[in-house]
């Protein structure tokens, strides 16, 4: 339980209350501290109410696997999508709920990609994978809305 720095420069938040565990990934320590308070409140409220609502959101991993299967499997770009998806899972956390991924989190992912030397076009393709996962989740009732997805300006030819 707590906040720890992950190997990508962001911060992983783990909260466990009454046997219920929630996690999130944040790009800055300040956001991680705020997220920790929010997750503790959410978990405590669910326990205190005596009834925890059925989970209505997918984890990033669940969304990725479903979207891969119904959208990209057997396509020419499947291998690239798999690489981009696995990198997103690694940075954002496979067990992170899609509803917990916001624009600030995605900004942190973009910064991470820039630091790794990815071009703007590559970063946009990586973000497109996340965007598609969220669109599929919305279509199936596992997410209510998608955050604004940052886009990088690509060079004109």
Descriptive notes:
The chain is mainly alpha-helical and 157 residues long. 52% of the residues lie in helices and 11% in strands. It has five helices and three strands, in the order E-E-E-H-H-H-H-H. A three-stranded antiparallel sheet has the order 1-2-3. Strand 2 and strand 3 form a beta hairpin. Helix 2 packs across helix 5. The longest helix is centred in the N-terminal third of the chain and has 21 residues. The chain is globular, with a radius of gyration of 16 Å. The chain starts with a strand and ends in an 18-residue tail after the last helix. 31% of the residues are buried. About 3% of the residues have low confidence.
In short:
52% of the residues lie in helices and 11% in strands.
DSSP E strands, number = 3
What low-confidence regions span 5 or more consecutive residues with pLDDT below 50? 50-54
Report the end-to-end length measured between terminal Cα atoms: 49 Å
Radius of gyration of CA atoms, rounded to a whole number = 16 Å
User: What global shape is seen?
Assistant: globular
Structural key phrases:
52% helix; 11% strand; 3 strands; single chain; 157 residues
Write the layout of secondary structure elements.
Elements: E1 2-5, E2 11-17, E3 20-26, H1 29-49, H2 60-72, H3 78-92, H4 103-115, H5 120-139
Antiparallel strand pairs: 1-2, 2-3
């Amino acid at each position: 339980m707590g906040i720890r720095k992950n190997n990508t420069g962001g911060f992983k938040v783990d909260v466990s209350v009454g046997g219920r565990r929630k996690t999130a990934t944040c790009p800055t320590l300040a956001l991680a501290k705020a997220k920790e308070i929010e997750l503790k409140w959410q978990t405590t409220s669910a326990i205190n109410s005596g009834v925890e609502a059925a989970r209505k959101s997918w984890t990033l991993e669940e969304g990725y696997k479903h979207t891969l299967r119904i959208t990209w499997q057997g396509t020419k770009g499947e291998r690239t999508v798999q690489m981009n998806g696995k990198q997103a899972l690694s940075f954002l956390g496979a067990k992170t709920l899609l509803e917990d991924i916001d624009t600030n989190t995605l900004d942190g992912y973009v910064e991470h990609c820039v630091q790794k030397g990815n071009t703007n076009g590559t970063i946009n393709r990586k973000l497109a994978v996340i965007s598609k996962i969220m669109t599929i989740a919305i279509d199936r009732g596992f997410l209510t809305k998608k955050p604004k997805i940052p886009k990088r300006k690509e060079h004109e030819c």
